[in-house]
Design a protein that fits this description.
The complex is a heterodimer.
Chain A lengths: L1 H25 L1 H33 L3 H6 L4 H4 L6 H8 L3 H32 L5 H12 L4 H14 L5 H25 L3 H9 L4 H12 L1 H17 L2 H6 L9 H10 L5 H21 L1 H12 L3
Helix pairs in contact in A: 2-15, 5-15, 6-9, 6-12, 7-9, 9-12, 12-16, 14-15
Chain B lengths: L1 H5 L1 H30 L1 H34 L13 H6 L3 H31 L5 H9 L6 H11 L12 H6 L16 H28 L2 H9 L4 H29 L3 H6 L9 H10 L4 H31 L1
The chains are: A mainly alpha, B mainly alpha.
């Protein structure tokens, strides 16, 4: 479709260029007004989306009584900041161990999901076998399974096998739950690697294992990075899964569970809750800001096409 | 053993290094064996050998529990005897009707709201020079957990009685308008559901906008240019050129958001814990499971979630097949 229309369209803008510019000069005031409205709307989005985060950061440095008496924006006029909330959050609420648990859940879950998805995607795209199409369709179906459907039986299964209340149970769950998405995401990428590359490797006598290690893994590094970032954010931010599989055990609860628990525990002040929340979002924020390019790739690769 | 299981560094090393290495070794050894066997058998076995771990994980974590849940939705509270359709009869009666109503509200308002705002972002951000920076700010909340996001917004929705200083930003702005009384956003009926839904929109807009933005940028410039030359205004161009071209991406975003609305849990759990008529099915399920210990009810709720998700699965599979044949 685009192929046939390209030549004509390529000429058209150049030919009509001056004329259209002339008409633009014809109504400058209307155009300026429209540009102004455009900027106002865009800036409004920026403000509404960023202000909540700013408010959290500001309040996390204010004293308990200040937070109770006035809104955070007052601190912009009369700044009075303290690091006390952070000290309290780390010492009294015990965010240190929580931070450890969150890391111990998210890092292995990320590595395992990425590696196992690569293995599955390689087999699915580069080996032919009966049931391949059915398997691809099953992946699409499993990708949208609501997690709630799986919780009760797994709770029983983990209880029987002694995995209940352990961090590896969460790895197992998170990896299993994300692998359909992961395979789907990586599959599209491996499928786009030229066949010749695999052919020449095979002619050189490389085994499938060798091809996987020396061709597939290095070449799909960008998409694997994208998958890793998505899974890290999901694992780090998950509340329901640790609440169900770790809740009420002696293991230090991950940050999400701990922070959510603070909301209902009225004994702790709002000030410490703010500091604790900042601590819980710091690592994901750093990850998304520093690796936004890969995050975008993950979002687009998983959504737009396989 | 238990010392290892509770030591954070040891766990990270086991999960992120030892287990992947073991998987790698198994693959290597398996390939050696397949190489020795050789011939047809090896060729037939190889794909399944590679798929073994991913398939086993999906079977244990997704397929087996799904079957179990469907069965126990027809069992009684303890799972000891059949209950027929009693659990489903319960799920569509009494207080559950309000819960289902709330979810219906989520199912309509959340995807629609996110989609419309994401379209605005995708189309308008494309026309300013500071697009990258603006997009970064909108994407930022996607990195923040719903639990943390809820805490952030609880603070914005904060309510103080009339006459005292408002500590919540929304009420502070709201009471600037003369005659307005402060509103308890999280307690006032119906308003509170919208307040919760907006937190979800704030959180999800980034991903939706990224997808639609990429789609908008991939619409051939000559198409919009041609429409412009024909005298079409910007709205007309959006409606008859841009929108039809990005429809597949709109569909992707819509299905993602519908699924999300279906299983919404965290925001309700943290902000209202289902009080003030804000409860949703996923939160009710958590309650049935841990407070009421009613396995049958919890499973029936899960099955309802699953059934509602089926049309979305079908749409996605169709889309997937259409893309393959293209």
């Amino acid at each position: 479709m685009t192929l046939t229309s390209t030549p004509a369209a390529a000429i058209a803008p150049a030919a009509i260029g001056p004329a259209s510019r002339g008409s633009r000069r014809g109504r400058p005031r209307g155009r300026h007004l429209i540009r102004l409205i455009l900027h106002i709307i865009v800036v409004l989005f920026m403000v509404v989306w960023f202000t909540p985060v700013l408010g959290l950061f500001v309040n996390s440095f204010r004293t308990q009584s200040n937070i109770g008496n006035s809104g955070w924006w007052n601190a912009l006029i009369a700044p009075l900041f303290t690091g006390y909330n952070y000290q309290q959050a780390l010492q009294v609420i015990g965010l240190g161990p929580s931070l450890g648990t969150s890391l111990a859940i998210a890092i292995p879950a990320t590595v395992l999901t990425t590696f196992i998805s690569a293995i599955g995607a390689f087999a699915l795209t580069r080996m032919s076998f009966a049931g391949r199409t059915v398997l691809s369709l099953a992946l699409v179906a499993l990708m949208v399974t609501p997690p709630q459907v799986t919780l009760v039986p797994l709770l029983k299964l983990f209880d029987v096998t002694g995995l209940y209340g352990t961090i590896p149970a969460l790895w197992l769950y998170m990896v299993g739950f994300t692998v359909p998405f992961g395979v789907f995401l990586v599959r599209g990428f491996i499928g786009s690697i030229p066949d010749e590359l695999f052919e020449s490797a095979r002619i050189d006598g490389a085994s499938d294992f060798r091809i996987f290690r020396s061709v597939v893994l290095p070449l799909s590094a960008p998409v694997l990075a994208a998958l890793a970032i998505m899974q890290f954010l999901w694992a780090w931010n998950d509340l329901l899964t640790p609440l169900i599989f770790l809740g009420g055990t002696s293991v230090a609860q991950p940050l999400t569970v701990n922070v959510a628990g603070l909301v209902t525990a009225t004994g702790q002040g709002e000030a410490q809750l703010m500091a604790a929340t900042v601590i819980s979002i710091l690592i994901p924020l750093i990850v998304i800001i520093s690796m936004q390019r890969y995050f975008v790739r993950g979002v687009l690769g998983g959504a737009v096409k396989g | 053993m238990s010392a290892i299981m509770t030591s954070i560094p040891a766990l990270i090393v086991i999960g992120a290094v030892v287990i992947p290495l073991l998987v790698y070794l198994v693959l290597g050894v398996g390939e050696k064996i397949l190489g020795v066997v050789g011939g047809r058998t090896a060729k037939r076995l190889r794909p399944w050998f590679w798929m073994l771990i991913p398939l086993a994980l999906m079977a244990i974590i997704l397929v087996y529990p799904m079957v179990e849940t469907i069965i126990s939705s027809f069992l009684n509270a303890q799972g000891t005897g059949w209950a027929g359709l009693n659990n489903f009869a319960w799920a569509f009666s009494g207080t559950m009707l309000g819960v289902l109503g709330n979810n219906l509200l989520w199912l309509i308002v959340f995807p629609l709201g996110t989609l419309i705002l994401a379209l605005i972002v995708a189309v308008l951000f494309d026309r300013v020079k500071y697009e990258r920076f603006a997009m970064t700010l909108v994407v930022l909340p996607t990195a923040i957990s719903f639990a943390a996001g809820s805490i952030i917004w609880r603070q914005i929705y904060e309510y103080q009685p009339a006459g005292t200083a408002q500590t919540g930003l929304l009420n502070a702005l709201w009471t600037l308008i003369p005659g307005n009384q402060p509103v308890a956003w999280l307690q006032a009926d119906v308003v509170n559901n919208f307040a919760l839904i907006f937190v979800a929109v704030w959180s999800s807009l980034g991903v939706a906008a990224l997808i639609l933005s990429a789609a908008v940028k991939s619409v051939p410039a000559e198409l919009t240019e041609a429409a412009r030359l024909d005298g079409a205004n910007e709205w007309r161009i959006f409606r008859s050129v841009t929108l039809p071209n990005i429809l597949p991406s709109v569909l992707v975003v819509a299905t993602t958001e519908v699924i999300f609305a279906l299983k919404i849990f965290d925001i309700v759990y943290v902000m209202t814990n289902g009080n003030f008529n804000t409860n949703t099915i996923a939160n009710q399920m958590y309650f049935e499971l841990f407070s009421s210990q009613n396995l049958g009810h919890a499973s029936a709720i899960a099955v309802i979630l699953l059934v509602v998700a089926i049309p979305i699965v079908i749409i996605n599979i169709r889309q997937f097949r259409a893309e393959r044949t293209r």
